[in-house]
Each structure stands twice: as C-alpha cells, then as structure tokens.
C-alpha cells in the first residue's frame, strides 16, 4: 500500500498547474522527474511481487523493467542472454495483434516461443542511426526483435521466451535487409 | 526513380524521394505529404517562452532539404513494413504500416535543436492533404468531447486577429482531426503526449500542424524567469522521440476507431523481463 501511495502522491503533485503545462522552472522539472521515477520504481516492485504471487512455482526473481525502451535501449535484453518477456494489459478491453519490439545486439540469433513452447514468427530490424546516436543513450543494441502478440485479454498476462543462441536455428528470427536510396526535396 | 507502395488494408504510396505521397483506403484515395518545419522565436519585445507561442514571423521555414530513405519490408511474415527517413539535420523519422492496424505510425526523433545562430526555434510536423475541411478542425479537450475549432473564429465573441498563427493554436491532449464532408472522410492524428496544434497558416484547408519540440533563448516575462532551453544530457539541448498515429476513415467510423486507440496509446502493455525460462 505504501509503495503505491508514493506514486499516488507524486501524481497529486503533478496536478499543479506548472507541471501540467510545463511552465515550471528547470530545476523544478528535474525534481518532478526524480519524484516520478522514484515512485515508479516502488510500483515496479509491487508488479514484481504480484507476479510472484500469481505464479509462485515459476519465478522467484525480481522482474526487470526497461524505462529506456522509448529510445530502443534495454539492458535486460541487449546483452545476448535469453529472457522471459512478460506482458500485462492494463486495459479493460483485449488487445489484438500487438507488435512488440525488443532491443537486441548483433552477433546472436533469436527465437521467440510462447508459453506452450510454440515458435512465434519474429524478425530483426536495424535501429536507425538517428535513434542510436541520441545523446545519453548508452546501449549496445543495434537491432530490434519484432514479433506480434495475437491477443492479450483485458487485465491479462502473456509470457514469451526470447532465446538467444550463437548458432542459427531453424526458427531463428529473420533479419530484414533495408533497400536504401537517396532523396532530395 | 519510381514510386512504391506499402500495402495492406491501407495503402500508402511513397514518391521516388521516399516521401509519403498518397493514402488509399476503401478505394478512396487522398494525396498526403508530411514534412518538418520550424518557426523562429521572436528576439525582440515579448518572446516565445514557456507560457506563450510568439514567433517572429507568421510563417514557417523548412527544417531540412535532403533526406536518405531506407525501405524495410518483411515479405515472409508481414510483421514489418517501414521506411526510415534520415534527414540531413537534427530530424529523423520512421513511417510504419501495421498489417493488422488501421493507421500509419510516424515515429520521430527531433533535436538537439541548433541555436548557433542565436535564434530560438519551434519545430512542427505538418500533414498536408487534399481534404476540404472548410477552415475547421477538431481537437480533444483532455478526454472530454471533441471541440470544433474554426480558423480566426471564436463562438462567443467577435475575434480580432492580432497574432494569426498563435491565435489559432489549441491544446491537443490526445488527438486532432479534420473532416471532409463531401468525401465523407476524417483524418485523425493521435498524439502520444500533449502538444500544440492547428491548421497550417500556409494552407488552411487540408493541412494539420503539430508542434513537437521547442528550444528558445529568451524568457517570456510571465514569471518563469528563464528561457525554455533544457540542456539535455550533454548540454547541447534536449532530444525528443515521439509518435503520431494517423487514421483515415469515414465520418461514421472515425470515432469508433480513434477512441479505443487513444486508450491503447496511453495505457500500453506493461513489459517486464526475467531470466528464468
């Protein structure tokens, strides 16, 4: 309860008119960001605990979250290790055909499997240079592993396994090659 | 030197330079273009700042001239169909078409905005079409109803225009739309965060502008007492990455599509990872 309340309180502060409109001073903006980030970390802990309660036999680990997925960076997935990907749909309606993008690094082959160990079609696509060069992005990911989730029920959870291997497997994700051309205005 | 199409239920045609040119849906075709442009912030008098938008001239300038485009098409599974547009400036964009979706996704990276010329800049992305929207557009009102906005008009008083551009800018919390009654089509652009939006001052009919990034060098004297000039991690200015989803549908079907899509944008699946299999 206390962990959730941190975010409730932070959201309360963010309803100040300066936070809503972005007219706060810069040092206040930094403080708002810090306040929200620390509250979100507490909530991630709650989510992790919930998973442990829901699936007590399957995992005792803390879940890892990737707040830098918006700049195609995720230390959990981009180090060439296999991972289980957990997706929770917070909406009151089902999500259909959702595309999931996970940053990965070169030099490995990747397979995606569902909870029943069925292979899921996946592709690899280059992260463009203008994303890779975003200042402050500390990531070795040069590609995104892209796959499609057919359905996530409302308030439902789906899990997938991302398997990283050094050798190519029959159902490894196919890399999509780009066709380049130069344009002018 | 040839046009090419990304195609599913929705077809997008690109010109030979890799720029989006046409959208076709349900056998209805509209011409469409997209470009990044900028306003110069005023450097004398009351400046553009955190509180106000006050460009020095009532017109926009192109951000960039040259572009390199790369096309990615997944022939096997149809999961990925996208064009990466690398401009010769501080702007880059990915245009995606999802086989299962009804929309076109614009995923853009803007910044750091250069201010070596000591001029503040406000960057917009423009979607121009041949829709006839009778100088009107619609913006959401923080999750309530879509409000009708008309160029140089206020419903409850006689409006005297002193600032033609900023006087027509409105808050866009989640979406902005234009409608063509004769074609019975609506173009809706969903935003991933609050932005300022309007029709384009250079083309009031058929065109929508959304302000995606700003970097300004003067305070606007409304109380913040500092310019809107966030340094970013390396001190050279902030970089933003954002997303717009563009929907084109009939007037009857438009709301049915954009309402659930807005919820999906603002409450995306929560993704987490464990190492155990």
Question: Top keywords for this entry?
Answer:
heterodimer, A: 185 residues, alpha+beta, four-stranded antiparallel beta sheet, four-stranded mixed beta sheet, 4 helices, B: 277 residues, mainly beta, nine-stranded antiparallel beta sheet, globular
Describe the protein.
The complex is a heterodimer of chains A (185) and B (277). With 185 residues, chain A is of the alpha+beta class. Chain A is built from 4 helices and 10 strands; from the N terminus they run αααββββββαββββ. Chain A has helices at 2-13, 17-21, 26-54, 129-132; strands at 64-65, 83-88, 95-104, 109-113, 119-120, 122-126, 143-152, 157-165, 174-175, 179-184. In chain A, strands 2-8-4-5 form a 4-stranded antiparallel beta sheet, with no helix packed on it. In chain A, strands 3-7-6-9 form a 4-stranded mixed beta sheet, with no helix packed on it. In chain A, a hairpin with a 5-residue loop joins β4 and β5 (119-120). With 277 residues, chain B is mainly beta. Helix content of chain B is 6%, strand content 46%. Chain B has 1 helix and 19 strands. Chain B has one helix at 251-266, and strands spanning 4-7, 10-14, 20-25, 28-40, 61-62, 66-73, 81-87, 91-97, 103-110, 121-129, 136-139, 147-150, 170-172, 175-180, 185-191, 195-200, 203-215, 240-250, 270-274. In chain B, a hairpin with a 5-residue loop joins β2 and β3 (20-25). Chains A and B meet through α3, β1, β2, β3 and β6 of A and β6, β7, β8, α1 and β19 of B. β2 (83-88) of chain A pairs antiparallel with β19 (270-274) of chain B, so a sheet runs across the interface.
């Amino acid at each position: 309860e206390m962990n959730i309340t941190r975010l409730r309180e932070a959201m309360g502060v963010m309803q100040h008119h300066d936070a809503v409109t972005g007219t706060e001073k810069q040092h206040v903006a930094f403080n708002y960001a810090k306040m929200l980030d620390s509250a979100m970390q507490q909530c991630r802990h709650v989510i992790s605990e919930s998973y442990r309660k829901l699936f007590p036999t399957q995992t005792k680990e803390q879940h890892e979250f990737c707040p830098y997925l918006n700049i195609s960076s995720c230390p959990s997935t981009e180090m060439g290790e296999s991972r289980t990907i957990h997706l929770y749909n917070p909406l009151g309606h089902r999500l259909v055909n959702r595309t999931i993008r996970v940053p990965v690094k070169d030099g490995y082959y990747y397979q995606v499997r569902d909870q029943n160990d069925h292979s899921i079609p996946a592709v690899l696509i280059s992260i463009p240079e203008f994303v890779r060069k975003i200042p402050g992005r500390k990531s070795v990911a040069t590609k995104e592993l892209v796959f499609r989730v057919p359905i996530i029920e409302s308030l439902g959870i789906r899990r997938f396994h991302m398997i990283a291997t050094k050798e190519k497997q029959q159902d490894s994700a196919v890399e999509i090659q780009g066709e380049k051309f130069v344009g002018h205005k | 030197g040839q046009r090419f199409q990304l195609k599913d239920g929705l077809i997008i045609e690109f010109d030979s330079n890799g720029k989006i040119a046409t959208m076709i849906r349900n056998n209805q075709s509209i011409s469409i273009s997209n470009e990044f442009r900028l306003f110069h912030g005023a450097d004398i008098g009351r400046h553009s700042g955190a509180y106000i938008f006050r460009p020095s001239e009532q017109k926009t300038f192109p951000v960039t001239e040259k572009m390199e485009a790369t096309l990615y098409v997944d022939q096997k599974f149809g999961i990925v169909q996208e064009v990466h547009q690398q401009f010769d400036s501080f702007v880059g964009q990915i245009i995606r078409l999802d086989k299962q979706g009804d929309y076109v996704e614009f995923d853009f990276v803007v910044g750091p905005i250069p201010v070596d010329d000591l001029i503040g800049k406000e960057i917009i992305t423009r979607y121009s079409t041949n829709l006839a929207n009778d100088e009107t557009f619609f913006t959401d009102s923080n999750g309530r109803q879509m409000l009708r906005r008309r160029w140089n008009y206020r419903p409850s008083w006689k409006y005297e225009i002193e600032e033609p551009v900023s006087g027509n800018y409105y808050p866009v919390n989640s979406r902005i739309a234009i409608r063509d009654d004769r074609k019975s089509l609506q173009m809706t652009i969903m935003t991933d965060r609050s932005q300022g939006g309007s029709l384009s001052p250079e083309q009031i009919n058929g065109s929508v502008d959304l302000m995606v990034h700003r970097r300004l060098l003067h305070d606007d004297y409304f109380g913040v007492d500092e310019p809107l000039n966030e340094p970013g991690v390396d001190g050279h200015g902030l970089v933003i990455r954002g997303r717009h989803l563009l929907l084109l549908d009939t007037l009857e079907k438009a709301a049915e599509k954009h309402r659930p899509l807005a919820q999906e944008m603002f409450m995306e699946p929560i993704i987490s990872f464990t190492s155990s299999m």
